[in-house]
Amino acid sequence: MDSTARPSPVSSKAADSDNDAALLGARKISGGSVDLDILPALLGYNVRIAQLALHRSFTRAMSSADIGSGVFGLLVLCGANPGIAQVQVAQNLNIDKASIVSLVDRMEQNGWLVRRRSTEDRRRHGLFLTAEGSRELKLLKERMLICEQALDSLFDADERRQLISLLQRIRP
Length: 172
Description:
Number of strands: 3
Number of helices: 8
Shape: elongated
Largest sheet: 3 strands, antiparallel
Structural class: mainly alpha
Strand order of the largest sheet: 1-3-2
Strand content: 5-15%
Distance between the termini: 31 Å
Helix content: 55-70%
Order of helices and strands: HHHHEHHEEHH
Number of domains: 2
């Protein structure tokens, strides 16, 4: 079977940003070719390799803010849905409830998020961004869009829409 190439590590941050598209694409394997047997034909393998490349790109883009994908998703959902319940965040990000509690606690400590008791159901607490949280989310979204631009060289608009549509079929 054909061997699948993988991106090699890049030493500098400047080189990282310049080579995002390359990192998300083919990789060179040092020491010769490796027979990957059935791996290149497996959907799970290919999705995982792509996810790892995307995660590295995201981590570089958010490194100075020390923001992970869970925190980013939490802030985005709270910004778009003021008063959203923690359980709704957990369901939409596919994160367990205990992890959401930890993320919310951390964002409250940062001053980016507040919990408010629902006026309709006293058992429920809604999540709201603070003014500082809204400012931070705006900056994080800008970084994320720059990070996503690395993919623009890999896909045209139709291919990108098709890929997202196909990946959404796999969602739990």
